[in-house]
Amino acid sequence: MINTEIAEIFRQIAQILEIKGENVFKIRAYERAAQNIEGLTEGLKNIAKEGRLTEISGIGKDLSNKINEFIKTGRIQAYEDLKKSIPGGLLELLNIPSVGPKTVKLLYEQLKIKNILDLEKAIAGGKLKGIFGIKEKTIENISKGIELLNRSSERMTLAQATLLTEEFLKSLKDIPGVKEVSCAGSLRRQKDTVRDIDILVTSDKPQDLMDAFVRLPPVKDIIAHGETKSAVRTKDDVQVDCRVVEDRSFGAALVYFTGAKNFNIKLRHLAIKKGLKVNEYGVFRKERFVSGRSEEELLKTLGMQYIPPELREDGGEIELALKNKLPHLIELSDIKGDLHVHSNWSDGSNSIAEMVEGCVKRGYRYAAITDHSQSLKVAHGLSIADLNKKRLEIERLNKKLRNFTVLFGTEVEIDSEGNIDYKDGVLKDFDVVVAAIHSGFKQSKEQLTRRMIKACKNKYVRIIAHPFGRLWGAREPYELDLDEILKVARETNTHLEINSFPDRLDLNDIHAHRAKEMGVKLAINTDAHALEQLGTIKYGLAMARRGWLSAEDVINTLPLDILLKELKK
């Protein structure tokens, strides 16, 4: 997980520099580099090997040298030296959601708090009360942040799990004797967060495979080392299990080790009714092997159509598969454009032309450049004058493009009362208006719901972005009455977003499924702030598939002319 490690190092460098009161531009450069690396869908090791590091937005010669240094040595000396300039536990404090460098500096200077244990003791002893800048609500938020940190440390995001697993799979495929390799478990079901990783392999030389597996570069500790099953712990404390199975049992093992517990129980009961036995080794009639080489073969033996891994949760998929009535889930090839993309007009790293080029390479036919609106100063929101200049740039670019259209868009603010921060006279000129909440997260469920509903009723708002405001490990989803919002969204032809950014995945699969049930079409967008983040669309797609969505449930599968009609209110 080199991407995750380097992104974390760059972020910590930025935080240490801020604690020390260093140059703000230098701090922002490291923060942006960390964000862009986290959004990569390709491993930094491979990018570095091909000499493409400086092609990553925000990565110049200095940072590329630091990345290469880490790849070669496992450390960045400048970072190690910088860490020595502050007490070590202060970095630990920065992992707490709602605790920033300024708060850490204050806690250290006022109370000599050096780590989380010190902070917990200080809170319990009431020592934070009365410190300038720290109010009762702040103390409450810090306590909640410590709880959230403890919970999130037990799991990783789908993107983190995917990158780590791909590193293992690539190495395993290069081992002599290996024939088939696949991940299983919750990662193969594409859950939004993952605890452990399961890998299945077929091989002519199982012992050689096991010996090689426990010595792969990401491995820190060996938990178990057997002839056909081994388990290791990575440098990031992730457990990875690897099993070698027989060729004839590969499909059966995939079904068994991919499906959720209740899914597997129901399969076993179904097999028993048919006079069969099903397990990780195959389908058997008494002791005779019947099938199991492939998943399709096994499920056909049980009288059902193929069930995509994302649906194997015992949510009614088995019953529908027995009737051959499962929906055809949306696929990546169905996506015709991205309707939530940022450029360097606001807080993005790339120009509109560069972001468009990335979309064209993905085979899209359109993209909406939705830079932030005027009230979000922290993201360099656009003034009315800037909007006019941006629109002219888009018009010039569209004249040069063939078979691709750039849509003039914006991501507007939903204020504390549900109002939008551009007037109707401005909003009417946009092709796409995406509305989002970026403040007031701690309002009541009723207040937040009212804000969303009022935004849906605005005749120019087409899409509600990242509706629950979740940031994995940093901010819990806020409470909303989703059904009430969906009712209004259906009435006003407003679409909710599945935000693909790895730390968001918002709407999640459960919410997406509910939207489908209530007849509200969704948009799967990346919210990309850099060229490399366009590839995160696959994570939003995973949430859509887990939510049982087909192409017709998603508006950015439509051809442009039909899409524009769909976006009208």
Q: What can you tell me about this protein's structure?
A:
The chain is α/β, with parallel strands linked by helices. It has four domains: 2-152, DNA polymerase, domain 1 (Orthogonal Bundle), CATH 1.10.150.110; 156-244, Beta Polymerase, domain 2 (2-Layer Sandwich); 249-322, Beta Polymerase, domain 3, CATH 3.30.210; 332-566, TIM Barrel (Alpha-Beta Barrel). The chain has 24 helices and 17 strands. The strands form four sheets. It has a seven-stranded parallel sheet with strand order 11-12-13-14-15-16-17, with helices on one face. Strands 2-4-7-6-5 form a five-stranded mixed sheet, with helices on both faces. Helix 13 (250-258) crosses helix 15 and helix 20 (445-457) packs parallel to helix 21 (482-492).
Strand content: 5-15%
**Distance from first to last alpha carbon:** 45 Å
CATH class of the largest domain: Alpha Beta
What is the overall silhouette? globular
* Biggest sheet statistics: 7 strands, parallel
Number of helices: 24
Mean pLDDT: 92
Radius of gyration: 25 Å
Strands side by side in the biggest sheet: 11-12-13-14-15-16-17
Can you tell me the CATH architecture of the largest domain?
Answer: Alpha-Beta Barrel
How many beta-strand runs? 17
Stretches with pLDDT under 50, minimum 5 residues: none
> Could you estimate the helical fraction of the residues in percent?
40-55%
Task: Tally the structural domains.
Answer: 4
Structural class: alpha/beta
CATH fold title of the largest domain: TIM Barrel
- CATH superfamily heading of the largest domain: Metal-dependent hydrolases
